[in-house]
Amino acid sequence: MNPQFKKGVLELCVLVLLDKKDCYGYEMVDEISKSISISEGTIYPLLRRLKKDKMVISYIKESQDGPPRKYYQITDLGKEKKEELVAEWDKFSTGVNNIVHEKLMNNLGDIEDE
Amino acid sequence: MNKDEYIGKLNKLLRKLPKKEREDIISDYEEHFIIGVEKGRSAEEISEALGSPKNIAKQIKAEYMLRKAEDKQSAGSVFEAALATAGLGIFNLIFVAVPAMLLIAILLTLFVLGGAMVFGGIFITLGTVLKPFLPNFNITTYDGVFGSLVGILYGIGLTILGLALLAGLAYLTKWFYGLALRYLKWNLRIIEGKKRS
């Protein structure tokens, strides 16, 4: 997949996950990797940027199994950004689907005509 | 690569960053390793999935420099950001740093010219005005009432022209600064994209 595209998608995925619940970095990597392949290391620079842009905040929480973990929590600004990105994504993916779908239907039409 | 090797490499690559910032970043990756091992992955697997420390360090450094440049608009930090971006590839050194430095050189030259015009103008004005009082102080060629008048007007005109040039340059420099930042950002996005593919 186009890497530029992937970068924007990763930001969208992180914000969506954090909108559901607070997560630590590894958890998010795990969750996202289930659906799309990412270079895992890139999530931390992304989280730093989101934090500096005040989209998320972080806090340390003890864990039963292992060392304390750095959790991330979405801010109101982050939620706004998430809504914006989701809307953009919906519009974009619908548009692409329309094109792909229409093409498919035309092809089918062609086949039927023959 | 095992955990210590990976962290060590990343730490070394980020040595230019402030200590606190660096420690914060390193702790993120340490946590990642620890949790990964807990979940039953090997350190080799984890470092493989993380991607090379070099690319991560480049991404972090470039973002850091850019942010620094945005925070305090100083010529030094813009230059650092330019360098960080240029460090991402020779291609960029040629297409970012060289044109930027060329423009900076032109701007500097014009600033010097503007300054010279202002000083020269003041010098000619004063020289002409003071001439009747200081006959030995023979610095301008403007003589007589009419000549003096021409000299004074010429001096004042030159000063005003110089000041106008400086004001124009200040505006141009500010505009150029904004443009440079935007250009660097654009570059960063392109390079980051390339690195990740």
Can you describe what's shown?
The complex is a heterodimer of chains A (114) and B (197). With 114 residues, chain A is α+β, with helices and mostly antiparallel strands. Chain A has one domain (3-113): Winged helix-like DNA-binding domain superfamily/Winged helix DNA-binding domain (Arc Repressor Mutant, subunit A, Orthogonal Bundle), CATH 1.10.10. Helix content of chain A is 68%, strand content 12%. Chain A has helices at 3-20, 25-35, 43-52, 76-113, and strands at 23-24, 56-61, 69-74. A 3-stranded antiparallel beta sheet of chain A has the order 1-3-2. The longest helix of chain A has 38 residues, at 76-113. The two termini of chain A are 35 Å apart. Chain B has 197 residues and is mainly alpha-helical. Chain B folds into 2 domains: 1-51, no CATH class; 66-196. In chain B, α4 (53-71) packs antiparallel against α7 (144-196). The longest helix of chain B is centred in the C-terminal third of the chain and has 53 residues, at 144-196. Chain A binds chain B through residues 2-4, 6-7, 24-26, 29-30, 39-42, 44-45, 47-49, 52, 65-67, 69-70, and chain B through 25, 27-29, 31-32, 34-36, 38-39, 49-51, 55-56, 59-60, 63, 67, 189-190, 192-197.
